[in-house]
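A.,

Following up on our hallway conversation. Structure tokens first:
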């Protein structure tokens, strides 16, 4: 993604730090979930961290889009970001459904991971041109 970016400003730097903060909590929330044998609250906390990571990524994308405008390589590569929006919606639903049955939440987290298993080639295609 950053290969298509021409410049960054303070907003982009703060948005990137925000994303890195939530990503840094992933080992903690994963361990919390594992140590408690996938109990509902730890699974929901893990999901909340996933929601925040996805939200922070979206904020970073918005900051970069504002910095570069709609007619740049970045804007063309990011497109409508359907997978990102779907991921956020599924994560939010999973956090709520975790309290109904913890395995529904876990299954939805795995489903989103499987969606992203297919490599995202949007930026590679733009860079090649």
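Then the amino acids I'd put at each of the 129 positions:
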């Amino acid at each position: 993604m950053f290969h298509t970016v021409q410049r960054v400003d303070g907003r982009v730097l703060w948005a990137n730090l925000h994303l890195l903060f939530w990503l840094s909590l992933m080992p903690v929330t994963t361990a919390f979930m594992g140590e408690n044998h996938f109990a509902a609250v730890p699974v929901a906390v893990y999901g909340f961290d996933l929601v925040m990571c996805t939200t922070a990524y979206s904020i970073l994308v918005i900051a970069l889009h504002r910095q570069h405008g709609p007619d740049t390589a970045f804007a063309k590569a990011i497109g409508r970001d359907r997978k990102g929006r779907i991921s956020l919606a599924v994560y939010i639903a999973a956090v709520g459904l975790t309290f109904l049955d913890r395995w529904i939440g876990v299954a939805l987290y795995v489903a989103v991971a499987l969606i992203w298993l297919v490599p995202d080639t949007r930026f590679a295609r733009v860079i090649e041109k």
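The chain has a mean pLDDT of 92. Curious whether your intuition agrees with the design.

B.
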